[in-house]
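Researcher: Go.
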Amino acid sequence: MNYFVTAIGTDSGKTLVSAILTEALKADYWKPIQAGLPADTDRVKELVKNNKSRFHQETFQLKTPASPHAAAQFEHLEIELTDFMLPGVNNRLVVEGAGGVLVPINQQNFVIELARQLDLEIILVANLYLGSINHTLLTADFLKRNNYKVKGLIFNGESNPESEQIIEKHTGWPVLLRLPKLGLINEETVSYWAEQLKMNWYE
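Model: Structure:
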Protein backbone atom coordinates (compact mmCIF):
# COMPACT_ATOMS: atom_id res chain seq x y z
CA MET A 1 0.00 0.00 0.00
CA ASN A 2 1.10 3.59 -0.64
CA TYR A 3 0.46 6.38 1.83
CA PHE A 4 -0.60 10.01 1.72
CA VAL A 5 0.63 12.19 4.59
CA THR A 6 -1.74 15.03 5.35
CA ALA A 7 -2.37 17.15 8.42
CA ILE A 8 -4.84 19.29 10.29
CA GLY A 9 -3.05 22.42 9.04
CA THR A 10 0.13 23.95 7.69
CA ASP A 11 3.33 23.42 9.70
CA SER A 12 1.87 20.45 11.54
CA GLY A 13 4.95 18.28 10.91
CA LYS A 14 4.14 16.50 7.63
CA THR A 15 7.72 16.63 6.36
CA LEU A 16 9.20 15.21 9.57
CA VAL A 17 6.54 12.48 9.65
CA SER A 18 7.12 11.73 5.97
CA ALA A 19 10.85 11.30 6.65
CA ILE A 20 10.12 8.96 9.58
CA LEU A 21 7.69 6.91 7.48
CA THR A 22 10.11 6.77 4.55
CA GLU A 23 12.90 5.55 6.85
CA ALA A 24 10.71 3.06 8.73
CA LEU A 25 9.27 1.49 5.58
CA LYS A 26 12.39 2.03 3.45
CA ALA A 27 9.84 3.50 1.05
CA ASP A 28 10.22 5.95 -1.81
CA TYR A 29 9.15 9.56 -1.25
CA TRP A 30 7.26 11.97 -3.49
CA LYS A 31 5.95 15.50 -2.95
CA PRO A 32 3.57 16.13 -5.89
CA ILE A 33 3.22 19.89 -5.28
CA GLN A 34 5.95 22.03 -3.77
CA ALA A 35 5.01 25.65 -3.10
CA GLY A 36 7.90 27.73 -1.80
CA LEU A 37 11.48 26.96 -0.87
CA PRO A 38 13.41 25.20 0.57
CA ALA A 39 11.94 22.09 -1.03
CA ASP A 40 10.57 19.42 1.30
CA THR A 41 12.10 16.71 -0.90
CA ASP A 42 15.58 18.05 -0.15
CA ARG A 43 14.84 18.07 3.58
CA VAL A 44 13.55 14.48 3.58
CA LYS A 45 16.65 13.39 1.63
CA GLU A 46 18.82 14.89 4.38
CA LEU A 47 16.93 13.00 7.11
CA VAL A 48 16.63 9.52 5.54
CA LYS A 49 19.73 7.34 5.75
CA ASN A 50 18.72 3.98 4.27
CA ASN A 51 20.00 3.16 0.78
CA LYS A 52 16.74 1.76 -0.60
CA SER A 53 14.57 4.90 -0.64
CA ARG A 54 14.37 6.96 -3.81
CA PHE A 55 13.16 10.55 -4.07
CA HIS A 56 10.96 11.47 -6.99
CA GLN A 57 10.62 14.74 -8.85
CA GLU A 58 7.74 17.02 -7.95
CA THR A 59 5.05 17.38 -10.58
CA PHE A 60 4.81 21.09 -9.75
CA GLN A 61 7.65 23.15 -8.29
CA LEU A 62 6.14 26.52 -7.41
CA LYS A 63 8.32 29.31 -6.07
CA THR A 64 5.60 31.21 -4.22
CA PRO A 65 5.00 30.11 -0.60
CA ALA A 66 1.21 30.09 -0.83
CA SER A 67 -1.64 27.65 -1.37
CA PRO A 68 -1.07 25.74 -4.64
CA HIS A 69 -3.95 27.38 -6.48
CA ALA A 70 -2.66 30.87 -5.65
CA ALA A 71 0.99 30.02 -6.28
CA ALA A 72 0.11 28.47 -9.65
CA GLN A 73 -1.99 31.46 -10.64
CA PHE A 74 0.85 33.81 -9.72
CA GLU A 75 3.17 31.80 -11.99
CA HIS A 76 0.58 31.63 -14.82
CA LEU A 77 0.03 27.89 -14.43
CA GLU A 78 -3.02 25.69 -14.01
CA ILE A 79 -3.04 22.58 -11.86
CA GLU A 80 -5.47 19.77 -12.69
CA LEU A 81 -6.00 16.45 -10.96
CA THR A 82 -5.27 14.72 -14.25
CA ASP A 83 -1.72 16.14 -14.16
CA PHE A 84 -0.71 13.64 -11.48
CA MET A 85 0.44 10.04 -11.96
CA LEU A 86 2.25 7.89 -9.43
CA PRO A 87 5.97 7.58 -10.14
CA GLY A 88 6.92 4.18 -11.48
CA VAL A 89 8.33 2.40 -8.44
CA ASN A 90 9.00 -1.15 -7.26
CA ASN A 91 8.62 -0.07 -3.68
CA ARG A 92 6.12 1.39 -1.29
CA LEU A 93 5.62 5.12 -1.67
CA VAL A 94 5.15 7.91 0.87
CA VAL A 95 3.38 10.90 -0.70
CA GLU A 96 3.43 14.21 1.16
CA GLY A 97 0.52 16.58 0.70
CA ALA A 98 0.53 20.38 0.86
CA GLY A 99 -0.97 21.99 3.95
CA GLY A 100 -4.21 20.54 5.29
CA VAL A 101 -6.85 18.47 3.54
CA LEU A 102 -8.84 21.36 2.07
CA VAL A 103 -5.98 23.31 0.59
CA PRO A 104 -7.12 24.15 -2.96
CA ILE A 105 -5.08 23.15 -5.99
CA ASN A 106 -7.42 24.99 -8.37
CA GLN A 107 -10.90 26.52 -8.27
CA GLN A 108 -12.63 23.13 -8.01
CA ASN A 109 -10.28 20.62 -6.38
CA PHE A 110 -8.50 20.18 -3.06
CA VAL A 111 -5.16 18.53 -2.33
CA ILE A 112 -6.79 15.63 -0.47
CA GLU A 113 -8.41 14.51 -3.74
CA LEU A 114 -4.98 13.30 -4.84
CA ALA A 115 -5.27 10.54 -2.22
CA ARG A 116 -8.41 9.17 -3.84
CA GLN A 117 -7.23 9.65 -7.41
CA LEU A 118 -3.95 7.85 -6.73
CA ASP A 119 -5.44 5.20 -4.38
CA LEU A 120 -3.43 6.23 -1.32
CA GLU A 121 -4.16 5.43 2.31
CA ILE A 122 -4.12 8.50 4.54
CA ILE A 123 -1.94 9.14 7.58
CA LEU A 124 -3.19 12.18 9.44
CA VAL A 125 -0.71 14.31 11.41
CA ALA A 126 -2.28 16.19 14.31
CA ASN A 127 -0.07 18.66 16.12
CA LEU A 128 -1.18 19.48 19.64
CA TYR A 129 -2.12 23.07 20.48
CA LEU A 130 -5.09 24.98 21.85
CA GLY A 131 -7.83 24.33 19.27
CA SER A 132 -6.32 21.19 17.81
CA ILE A 133 -9.16 18.98 19.04
CA ASN A 134 -11.63 20.95 16.95
CA HIS A 135 -9.35 21.04 13.90
CA THR A 136 -8.58 17.33 14.12
CA LEU A 137 -12.18 16.22 14.57
CA LEU A 138 -13.37 18.48 11.74
CA THR A 139 -10.72 16.96 9.48
CA ALA A 140 -11.68 13.44 10.57
CA ASP A 141 -15.35 14.16 9.96
CA PHE A 142 -14.60 15.30 6.41
CA LEU A 143 -12.48 12.22 5.68
CA LYS A 144 -15.11 9.85 7.07
CA ARG A 145 -18.06 11.49 5.31
CA ASN A 146 -16.20 11.32 2.03
CA ASN A 147 -15.10 7.69 2.51
CA TYR A 148 -11.36 8.22 2.45
CA LYS A 149 -9.15 5.32 3.53
CA VAL A 150 -7.29 6.24 6.72
CA LYS A 151 -4.38 4.25 8.14
CA GLY A 152 -4.15 6.14 11.41
CA LEU A 153 -3.06 9.19 13.38
CA ILE A 154 0.32 10.56 14.33
CA PHE A 155 0.37 13.08 17.18
CA ASN A 156 3.13 15.67 17.01
CA GLY A 157 4.19 17.97 19.83
CA GLU A 158 4.25 18.22 23.58
CA SER A 159 2.02 15.49 24.99
CA ASN A 160 -1.54 16.44 25.95
CA PRO A 161 -3.23 13.25 27.17
CA GLU A 162 -6.70 14.79 27.44
CA SER A 163 -6.61 16.08 23.87
CA GLU A 164 -5.19 12.81 22.55
CA GLN A 165 -7.75 10.70 24.40
CA ILE A 166 -10.77 12.60 23.09
CA ILE A 167 -9.41 12.61 19.53
CA GLU A 168 -8.78 8.84 19.68
CA LYS A 169 -12.26 8.24 21.09
CA HIS A 170 -14.11 10.22 18.44
CA THR A 171 -12.07 9.24 15.40
CA GLY A 172 -11.76 5.56 16.32
CA TRP A 173 -8.45 5.52 14.45
CA PRO A 174 -5.25 3.88 15.74
CA VAL A 175 -2.39 6.06 16.89
CA LEU A 176 0.70 5.06 14.92
CA LEU A 177 3.15 7.32 16.75
CA ARG A 178 3.31 10.00 19.43
CA LEU A 179 6.12 12.39 18.55
CA PRO A 180 7.23 14.70 21.35
CA LYS A 181 8.33 18.25 20.70
CA LEU A 182 11.77 17.72 19.16
CA GLY A 183 14.62 20.16 19.39
CA LEU A 184 17.31 18.58 17.24
CA ILE A 185 16.07 16.88 14.09
CA ASN A 186 18.66 14.91 12.14
CA GLU A 187 19.25 11.43 10.67
CA GLU A 188 19.65 9.89 14.10
CA THR A 189 16.43 11.45 15.39
CA VAL A 190 14.50 10.19 12.39
CA SER A 191 16.06 6.73 12.64
CA TYR A 192 15.08 6.47 16.32
CA TRP A 193 11.46 7.46 15.71
CA ALA A 194 11.29 5.20 12.66
CA GLU A 195 12.04 2.29 14.98
CA GLN A 196 9.32 3.46 17.38
CA LEU A 197 6.84 3.69 14.51
CA LYS A 198 7.56 0.10 13.49
CA MET A 199 6.40 -1.09 16.91
CA ASN A 200 2.89 0.27 16.22
CA TRP A 201 2.76 -0.50 12.50
CA TYR A 202 0.28 -3.02 11.18
CA GLU A 203 -0.37 -4.29 7.68
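Model: Strands lie at 3-7, 28-30, 33-35, 55-56, 60-62, 93-100, 121-127, 150-156, 175-179.
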